[in-house]
Amino acid sequence: MEKTWWKESVVYQIYPRSFHDSNGDGIGDIKGITDKLDYLSDLGVDVIWLSPVYESPNDDNGYDISDYYGIMDEFGTIEDWEELLDQIHHRGMKLIMDLVVNHSSDEHMWFQEAKKSKDNTYRDYYIWHEGKNGKEPNNWKSSFSGSAWEYDENTKEYYLHLFSKKQPDLNWENPKLREEIYNMMKWWLDKGIDGFRMDVINFISKVPGFPDGAEKAGEKYVSGGKLFRNGPRIHEFLQEMNKEVLTNYDVMTVGEMPGVNVEEAKKYTDYQRKELQMVFTFEHMDLDSGTGGKWDLKPLELTDLKENISKWQTGLHGTGWNSLYWNNHDQPRIVSRFGNDKEFWSESAKMLGTFLHMLQGTPYIYQGEEIGMTNVRFDSIDDYEDIEIRNMYYEKVIEGNEDHDKVMESIYVKGRDNARTPFQWNSQPAGGFTKGEPWIRVNPNYKEINAEKAVADENSIYHYYRKLIKLRKQHPIIVYGDYHLILPDHDKIYAYMRTLENEKLLVITNFSEENVPFKQPENVDFKPKELIIGNYNTEEKGDPTSFTLKPYEARVYKGV
Ligand code: NOJ
Predict the structure, then answer these.
(1) In the chain, which residues have pLDDT < 70?
(2) Contact assessment for residue 290 and residue 296, using Cβ atoms and an 8 Å cutoff
(3) Are 157 and 104 in contact (CB under 8 A)?
(4) How many other CB atoms are there within 10 angstroms of residue 312's CB atom?
(5) What is the 8-class DSSP label of residue 324?
(6) Cα(205)–Cα(202) distance, rounded to whole angstroms?
(7) Would the CB of 29 count as within 6 Å of ligand 1?
(8) With the CA atoms of 466, 471, 472 and 473 taken in that order, what torsion angle do they form, in degrees rounded to the nearest 10?
C-alpha cells in the first residue's frame, strides 16, 4: 500500500464561528484561531480543516458563499488568513479549506446577474426550469425542508436549491462554470493551502430532465435522492477537476458525500481513477435514525455499527482510503450520542476515541471532541440558530401538527447546534470563547468541561486524545494494518484486530455501561504482549485474553 502523509495524519476541524473570538463581537474569527494554534500543535494534530471563511450572508453559516475569493468581514481579512496559514505551516501543520461548489449564495454576483434575464451571460451558471402545471418542476425536496425549487417572478422560471433558497445550485453541466471553479481552486492552492474538504460534492451532477423522485408515504415532497446523488456525470466531473487542478499539487482531498455506499466510494477513492482521496460516508451516522430520516430517533444497535464499519474497512482496503469521524459541525456530540455524557462521560468519550483512532483510515477530530464537549438542551426554539432546525421546526410544529415536545427532543438528540455551541476554553463567562455576547448560547456545563481544566489534568480526555495521536506516529500498524472483526454477534463488545506483517493489534471496546466479560475466541490467533492504551487503570498482570471489561472500557493490545 502506498504510504502518504495524508494517510498518516490526524485532521482537526475548526468551525470558525464557534472556535475563538479575538475582538469581542461574539463571533469566532481568524485571529482567534491563530491565537490558539499552540493548543492544537500541543494536541499533536497534523492538518486543520477550516469550515468556510469566505464572504457570505450567513444564511447557512458560511456554506452560502457570495465571493469565493474574499474573507467574511466578521472573520477578518485576507491578511489575517495569510498570517494564519503561515503560522500553521510554521508549526509543521497543514491547512485544508472547505470547497462549497454545489451551490453558491444567492448574493453571489453570478446569481445576481443570472436572475436579471434569461439571456444573461451568467444565466446558465445556475439550474433554471419552467414550472409544471403551474407548480414546481418536480417533487424534489430541499434538505432544509420544503420544495427544492424557488420561483423567480422576474424571469418566470424556477431555480433549483437543494439546500436553502439562498443557496442556488450551480450548473456543472456548463463548462464555463467548471472553469471558474477550477481557477478559483488554483488561486487558493497557489496561496499554499494543502487541500480541500468538498461540500456535498456528490450532488453536483443531476439526472437530466429533472424527473420526479418516487413519493414516500407521509411526505409532501421527496428528496429526489438518487436523482442528484452520485449522478450520471459525477465521476467525469471529478476526474476533470483532478486533471485540471489537483494532480498538479501534493494535496489532500476529502469529499463529503451523503448517500454514498462502499461500492461508489471505491470508485471515488481508487487511486488509479484519479478522483479524490477520501469520502465522508453518512452510513454510520444514519444508524440511529428510523425510516422517517434524521429526526426519527432510534437507538443504535451495536451489531449494525459492526456490520457497517466492517464493510467500509474491508471494502476500501487496498483500493481506496477511509476517513474516520464521529463528529463535525452537522452532527451531535458523540459522547452524548453513542456514549454516556453523565456517569461515564470521561470513560465513554475515551472509548469512542480509541475505537475510531485504531481503525484504518484518516481520523478527524471536531473541535471540542478532544475535551468531551456534550450536546445541549435549550428550552426555547428561539435559542437555536441553525436554519435546518428552524425550518424543520416550522414545517413540523407551526405549519404541521406535530407535538412541540417530541420535536424538541429530536433537536436535543440530533440538532446541528449541539456541535456549534462555543468552544469551552475555560471557566470564565461564555467559557472564555468571547469577551462579548456569544452569537449562540454557550453550553451551561462550561465550568466543568473546558480546555484549561483538561490540559491541567493528566487523566483528561484531552491527554488521552494526545496519546492516541502519538501512538499513530509510533506504530505504522495503526495506519496501514488491515482489519478483522472478531465477536461479530456480541451486542456490547466491539473488538477487532489489525495486522501488518508480523505485528498485530487487538482493539477491545465495551459500548455498554455494564461490566462485560471478554474472552478471546479460540480461533483468533493473537498473543498479547503489551497494553498500548486503555481508559482505566488496568492491572497488566491479569490474563489479557480473559477479563471483565468495565463500563465503556477500551483496551488496545499489541502482540503477535
Ligand atoms: C454540508 C455542510 O456540512 C452543511 O453544514 C451545509 O449546511 C450543507 N452541506 C450545505 O452546504
Answers:
(1) 215-225, 539-541
(2) yes
(3) no
(4) 24
(5) E
(6) 7
(7) no
(8) 100
Q: What are phi and psi of 463, to 5 degrees?
A: -70, -30
Least Cα distance to 268 among 210, 326, 315, 328 occurs for 315
Domain boundaries along the sequence of the chain: 8-104+175-465, 109-160, 481-559
For residue 222, the model assigns a pLDDT of: 53
- The finding on whether 169 has its CB within 6 A of some atom of ligand 1 is no
Active-site annotation holds for 330: no
What is the Cα–Cα distance from 556 to 358, expressed in whole angstroms? Answer: 9
Q: Give me 433's grid cell.
A: 470563547
pLDDT of residue 525: 96
Q: In the numeric block, which cell numbers belong to residue 546?
A: 480473559
pLDDT in tens, 232-266: 999 999 999 999 999 999 999 999 999 999 999 99
- Residues with Cβ within 8 Å of 291's Cβ and at least 6 positions away in sequence, in order, are none
Helix boundaries (H) for 19-75: 30-35, 37-43
Residues in the chain: 560
Does the C-beta of 80 come closer than 6 Å to ligand 1? Answer: no
Q: Is 214 exposed, middle or buried (0-12, 13-18, 19+ CB in 10 A)?
A: exposed
DSSP class of residue 222?
B
Closest ligand 1 atom to residue 328 Cα is 3
94 CA distance to ligand 1 centroid (A)?
A: 23
The bridge status of strand 528-534 relative to strand 554-559 is antiparallel
C-alpha cell at 82: 495569510
**Helix then strand then coil, % of the chain, to nearest 5:** 35, 20, 45
Sign of the CA dihedral running 417, 38, 356, 447: negative
Q: Given the C-alpha cell 484561531, which residue does it identify?
A: 33
Superfamily of structural domain 8-104+175-465: Glycosidases (3.20.20.80)
Distance in angstroms (rounded) separating the CA atoms of residues 48 and 15: 11
Residue listed under C-alpha cell 463500563: 551
Determine the pLDDT at residue 291. Answer: 87
pLDDT, residue 537, reads 87
* pLDDT value, residue 225: 66
Annotated active-site residue in 256, 288, 369, 553: 256
Phi, psi of 264 (to 5 degrees): -65, -40
Q: What is the pLDDT of residues 504-519, one digit of tens each?
A: 999 999 999 999 999 9
Quick one: cell of 384?
437555536
Instruction: Mark whether 199 is an active-site residue.
Output: yes
pLDDT at 253: 98
417 lines ligand 1 (CB under 6 A): no
In whole angstroms, what is the distance from residue 492 CA to residue 476 CA? 28
- Chain centroid, CA 38 distance in Å: 23
Nearest to 552 by CA among 256, 295, 401, 346: 346
Domains 8-104+175-465 and 109-160 share a fold: no
Is the C-beta atom of 201 inside 6 A of ligand 1? no
Side-by-side strand order, sheet with 128-129:
128-129, 157-160, 149-152
Domain 109-160 homologous superfamily, CATH: Oligo-1,6-glucosidase; Domain 2 (3.90.400.10)
- Assigned architecture for domain 481-559: Sandwich (2.60)
Indicate which residue's Cα is closest to atom 11 of ligand 1. 63
Q: Which amino acid is at 399?
A: E
